[in-house]
Automatic annotation (TrEMBL):
It is a single-pass type I membrane protein. This is Interleukin-12 receptor subunit beta-2-like. Gene3D superfamilies: Immunoglobulins (2.60.40.10). Belongs to the type I cytokine receptor family. Type 2 subfamily. InterPro entries: FN3_dom (IPR003961), FN3_sf (IPR036116), Ig-like_fold (IPR013783), Type1_Cytokine_Rcpt_Type2 (IPR052672). It comes from Fundulus heteroclitus.
Length: 607
């Protein structure tokens, strides 16, 4: 009786551990008394994909009962009742490496299913042939470390026996294989064989033939220090190793102990590791029955990693700068308005703090980060000043602004030609500057006085198209297209040559990108103290079929019997919308019945 109780306790404990988590079991499984037991043929573990027969046995005969079997919570349909205590269930092609079966019983006396017992089913595969064996050691190591490829997963405990000479080591799953180096001679060739064993059989590798000289790799290096360069896009790694430099392959163009890393991004965390490689003068171990020699490069293990955050970078290029000069004041100063193009956002890290203007007398003026121009008071004798962009990670190189005049007239630039074309103007010119030339500057300003726009044109760019901020090279003629101009607005365009001797006088032109017209004619009666027999009418069309917004205001200065003298006010530029090329006068007597007007054209000569 005591033996039976002990058996039942053992079965209860096995049930608790084998079907833990099964939803049909009560939470307190210690109180469950099994009604029977479950067996399987063939006994587990089974070869994966095999058919399995499961027997559910009751301890006592239950005539009016039915037995059920669940495999991983799915009911098994295929079954056969052999007698009142045993039912056979058939499981075809079991592929899962670990399954759970639970046998349950239902009878007339039971309101619900009761668990009879359960069983864990294990399936697996025989081991593949170990392949791709490799071994390595360093000159200072006491061990030879080997590795191999196990092949497909067996889903079972698999052990590997590694034999060299009379030395055998057994490892589970072939993860780490270490052989004492002391059992091996330096100049002797050895044969290593790996054999894999599990429940379904054994598999042996091809012989791996090696010598210590063949498998010796360089010692693992260490990174001792690293430095980021000024622009934070490169870093220098300082490293050392106990390996003899005679055995290492030189790394060009850097010298021993230094490695240059390029193309880094600012404010980015990097993990650095290095390894060293021996010269290409070794024999290659082989996993074939016959030993073959070939050239091979052996490299060390990767060094311990070093993590660093790359610093932010400051702008590395000079700003594009320009200036306009004011009149000289009595105190020997003059106003210099300095212009610059902000640096592109991808050229620096962090925040743009300010712009710094440094005069050649040492005086510094700071300007707001959001600005693109700033006015400073500079001594008349000052010849240059410099502009820098200041960011949270550094400053740009100083961009020099020349305040000198070369004394060269606009003829220095050759002929300046303009071609207007729907919102843009094509500017062409030539220059005799020669080697003194640094670059050109084109500026344009709407009239009446508006915001000054400018762009820098490099001397290498002969034919240039300017669209906002972009410059494209086309041909060898100095030329550019200024776009983004408003139709009907007059601009004053000036071209400067910046040389090593200073800035030339400007070659300037008044331009319209397009002269604007309006619908119909503007016919405006003049208001004047004329005799009642005369009515003066005035109309002023401009060139290119464009018209002003209105006619000018007339003033009668002299009125005589056969003549009058009139004066008119010139139209504001905002009303002209183009260049005025002529004026036309029309007159008609008030008592005339004719509808035809007499007229006269006058050529326009701007004052």
């Amino acid at each position: 009786m005591n033996l039976l109780l002990a058996s039942r306790r053992c079965i209860i404990m096995l049930l608790c551990f084998s079907i833990i988590g099964w939803p049909l079991l009560p939470a307190d499984c210690i109180d469950i008394i099994p009604l029977g037991y479950v067996t399987a043929e063939p006994a587990t573990p089974v070869l994966m994909g095999s058919n399995l027969t499961v027997f559910c046995h009751l301890f006592k005969c239950e005539q009016r009962s039915t037995l059920y079997l669940e495999l991983n919570k799915q009911e098994v349909k295929s079954s056969k009742r052999e007698n009142c205590t045993t039912t056979v269930f058939y499981l075809p092609r079991v592929w899962m490496p670990l399954s759970k079966v639970v046998c349950m019983m239902q009878s007339e006396q039971m309101s619900r299913l009761k668990v009879v017992s359960g069983l864990d089913l294990r399936a697996g595969l025989p081991p593949d042939k170990p392949a791709n064996i490799s071994c390595e050691t360093t000159r200072s190591s006491d061990l030879v470390n080997c590795s191999l490829q196990r092949g497909q997963e067996t889903y079972l405990h698999t052990r590997y026996n590694i034999s060299v000479l009379r030395y055998t080591v057994m490892v589970l799953d072939g993860e780490k294989i270490s052989i004492p180096r002391a059992i091996l001679d330096e100049n002797t060739k050895y044969t290593l064989i790996a054999t894999a064993y599990n429940h379904f059989g054994a598999s042996q590798s091809d012989p791996f033939i090696f010598s210590l000289e063949d498998i010796a790799i360089p010692e693992t290096p260490h990174i001792v220090r690293m430095e980021f360069m000024n622009e934070s896009t490169s870093a220098t790694l300082y490293w050392n190793t106990s390996e003899s430099s005679m055995r290492l392959r030189p790394q060009e163009p850097c010298c021993k102990g230094l490695i240059q890393v390029e193309n880094l991004r600012p404010l980015t965390e990097y993990e650095f590791q290095i390894k060293t490689c021996a010269s290409l003068s070794r024999q290659t171990p082989t996993s074939t029955p016959s030993f073959k020699t070939s050239l091979r490069s052996l490299c060390s293990k990767w060094s311990p990693s070093v993590r660093r955050m790359s610093p932010g970078k400051g702008p590395s290029q000079e700003l594009h700068v320009w200036r306009t000069l004011g009149e000289q004041a009595r105190n020997g100063l003059r106003t210099v308005t300095v212009f610059w193009k902000p640096p592109p956002l991808d050229c620096y890290s962090g925040e743009l703090l300010k712009y710094s203007i440094l005069l050649d007398n040492g005086h510094e003026e700071n300007c707001a980060a959001a600005s693109s121009q700033c006015s400073v008071q500079a001594p008349v004798e000052s010849q240059t000043l410099s502009v820098r962009a200041v960011t949270s990670y550094g400053t740009s190189p100083p961009a020099s602004v020349d305040l000198r005049h070369t004394g060269l007239s606009e003829s220095f630039l050759g002929k300046l030609t303009l071609e207007a074309d729907a919102g843009s103007v094509h500017v062409s010119w030539s220059s005799t500057a020669g080697k003194d030339l640094l670059y050109f500057v084109i500026e344009w300003e709407s009239m009446p006085a508006g915001r000054l726009h400018w762009t820098k044109v490099l001397k290498e760019l002969k034919e240039t198209t300017i669209t906002g901020k972009e410059i494209f090279r086309l041909t060898d003629l100095f030329s550019c297209r200024v776009s983004g101009l408003m139709a009907g607005v007059r601009y004053n365009l000036s071209l400067y040559a910046v040389t090593t001797r200073g800035v030339s006088a400007p070659a300037s032109r008044l331009i319209y990108s397009r002269e604007q017209s309006k619908t119909g004619f503007a016919l405006h009666p003049g208001l004047h103290p004329c005799p009642p027999t005369i009515l003066l009418l005035f109309w002023s069309p401009c060139a290119f079929l464009s018209e002003p917004l209105s006619a000018p205001t007339l003033h009668v200065l002299i009125r005589e019997a056969r003549r009058i003298l009139v004066r008119w006010d010139e139209l504001p530029l905002s009303q002209q919308r183009g260049f005025i090329t002529k004026y036309t006068f029309y007159w008609q007597t008030l008592d005339s019945s004719s509808t035809k007007l007499s007229g006269e054209h006058l050529k326009y000569k701007p004052s």
